[in-house]
Structures are given as C-alpha cells and as structure tokens.
Amino acid sequence: MSKIAYTGVFLDAASKKILHDKYDDQLPDGWTWSGDHMTIDVGKKDTELPKDTGTEVTLTVTQIGKSNDAWALKVDGYRSSNAIPHITLAHRVAAKDSNKIENWEDIKQFTLTGKVGAQYHNGGLPYVGARRKRTRRAVNKLKNKLRRKISRRA
User: Fold this and answer.
1) Low-confidence residues of the chain: pLDDT under 50
2) What is the DSSP annotation of the chain?
3) Residues in CB range of 11: below 8 A, 6 or more apart
4) What residues contact residue 9 under an 8 Å CB cut-off, 6+ apart?
5) pLDDT at 135
6) What's the Cα-to-Cα distance from 123 to each of 31, 68, 127, rounded to whole Å?
7) Less crowded by CB within 10 Å, the N or C end of the chain?
8) Distances from the Cα of 98 to the Cα of 23, 35, 38, 82, 126, angstroms
9) pTM more than 0.90
C-alpha cells in the first residue's frame, strides 16, 4: 500500500455543498478551491490509519480566517496536529498557507459532517473505511475460483 500523505476528516457531499454555496462566490479571483477536509496529521514515517477510520464526525465551524494567501474555517469536534484545527476553503498558491493565518473572526456557528480517513500519496479518493479491503478480498476470491476452474479443464 502507498504511503499516507495525510489523515483527516473528509467531508461528505452535503457538507462540501454547504461550503461551496456559502463561500465560493466570495473568494478572490484565480484562487484554488479546497473545502473538502480537516487535516488530522500530515504524513510522517509513523503515520498510520486512525483507529476510528470510517467513523462519522461532526465538526462545528466557529471562525473564519483570511490572509493574502488563504481562507479557512476554524473547527471544533476532532483532534488535529495543526495549532488551529481548520478546513482550508481556498488558497492562492498552496493549501498549507492556511496554517499561517493569524486573523480569525467569529461567525455564526454551523456544523459539517465527514468521515475519518487517509489520503495516500498516489492520489485518488480518500480511504475512509474497510470497503477497499472487502473489495480486494472479493476480487481475490473470484480469481482463485477462476484458477480452480481453469486447472480442472486442463
């Protein structure tokens, strides 16, 4: 399996839509939209899948932070290795610039939901549960069944 790039709470489609509807038209032109996860931990040698991978989490948005390089929402509801747990809404150059935001303003609180999981270096969709393992087992089972059939015919 590939190395973990980062672990996070990956927002469900409804929560991503809430963020997009609420903030997309306010962002500066030319910025890259993010708004899909709250980072738990950025990949290190010892980074493993969280024990509660696949667990649904509710995050409460409490503040918005803005800088010349990024916009983010401060959240409560799950641990994070970041000094300020947040969801990067958008960035000018790099998403990690949201870690440097210093000015945070209170906003009317609202909640978002997502699942604990991991994003791997090879890209693709985040891994947020045991579906990958079950699918792999099913594929291997079919392969073995086919091999047995072929070997009986030979």
Assistant:
1) 130-133
2) -PPEEEEEEEEPHHHHHHHHHHHGGGSPTTPEE--SEEEEEE--TT----TTTT-EEEEEEEEEEE-SSEEEEEEESS--SSSS-EEEEEESS-GGGGGG---EEEEEEEEEEEEEEEEETT-SS-B-STHHHHHHHHHHHHHHHHHHHHHHH-
3) 19, 35, 36, 37, 38, 87, 112, 113, 114
4) 37, 38, 40, 57, 59, 78, 114, 115, 116, 117
5) 58
6) 21, 28, 10
7) C
8) 16, 12, 11, 10, 21
9) no
The pLDDT value given to residue 131: 47
Closest CA to 75 of 24, 38, 42: 38
What's the gap between Cα 108 and its chain centre? 23
Angle at alpha carbon of residue 137, lines to 135 and 138, rounded to 5°: 65
The structural domains of the chain, with segments of one domain joined by +, span 4-129
